[in-house]
Amino acid sequence: MDEAYEQEVERADRALRRADFETALRHLERAHVLAQRMTGRHTFIHWRMLVAGLRRGDVREVVGQVPRIVASILFSRLWVPRGNSGRARVNALKPMPVPDDLRHLVP
């Protein structure tokens, strides 16, 4: 799981350097699914989503990530909605399907 998480973060960072925000956010969503139960990583992914939203000029993403950062700090170890992508466009409490290739890595 650590390796898959690190790969998704690196792919997101490369996409952000190219200003390819859709690709970056797609990789951050996948990293989010992997990191949800680990407070530090979970919070880091929401921070990176906020940064991507800022760079993209996406007010909805920026505003939506602020409470998610706080919630990730408070609730990561208590309860998370399995498979949730972490994006501001989805309900933060809604479980979602885990991508097939990540399913074996997500408890």
TrEMBL record:
Source superkingdom = Bacteria
Q: What is this protein called?
A: DUF3703 domain-containing protein
